[in-house]
TrEMBL record:
It comes from the Eukaryota. It is a peripheral membrane protein. Belongs to the PsbU family. It comes from Cyclostephanos tholiformis. This is Photosystem II 12 kDa extrinsic protein. It is found in: Membrane. Pfam families: PsbU. Its main location: membrane.
Length: 149
């Protein structure tokens, strides 16, 4: 932005520099000079009006609970996170990710249609589950994250 301002000042100052021979001014060249000046001024004004970029959320503080560690977040982890827990995938895992959000780990047992075998498997791994605040960036991909291999 500073460079654009300096360039505009230098170009406008050059208009006042003495020339060895005054240019012949016609109505057509005067109009094009005016348009060039107004175009440059508009570009500088537009550059000044552009807001500063927003700070993006780069790191998710609960990334370790999405399936890469020993503890799985019931509200944000993808269905593939349950592959590491034998017996959970696809039955119980599919039901967990298609319901929720869960306030506590015990809320998982209230899923409609959960069989006795699925409840036993969930009970087996209950200590490895946690419930974090649902994050829209991860909740949207809980059922299908597009990874097929």
């Amino acid at each position: 932005m500073k460079i654009a301002l300096v360039a505009a000042l230098v170009s406008s100052a050059a208009a006042f520099a003495p020339n060895a021979q005054p240019p012949v001014q016609t109505a057509l060249s005067a109009e094009s000079d005016r348009r060039a000046f107004l175009g440059a001024a508009a570009a500088i004004g537009a550059a000044a009006a552009i807001p500063a970029s927003a700070v993006a959320k780069v790191d998710y503080e609960n990334i370790a609970y999405l399936g890469g560690g020993s503890v799985v977040d019931l509200n944000n982890a993808n269905v593939r996170a349950y592959l590491r827990l034998p017996g959970m995938y696809p039955g119980a895992a599919g039901k967990i990710v298609s319901h929720g959000p869960y306030k506590t780990v015990a809320d998982v047992y209230n899923i409609p249609g959960l069989t006795a075998g699925e409840k036993e498997v969930i009970k087996k791994y209950e200590s490895r589950f946690t419930t974090k605040e649902p994050s829209p960036e991860y909740v949207i991909d809980r059922i299908n994250n597009g990874l097929y291999r």
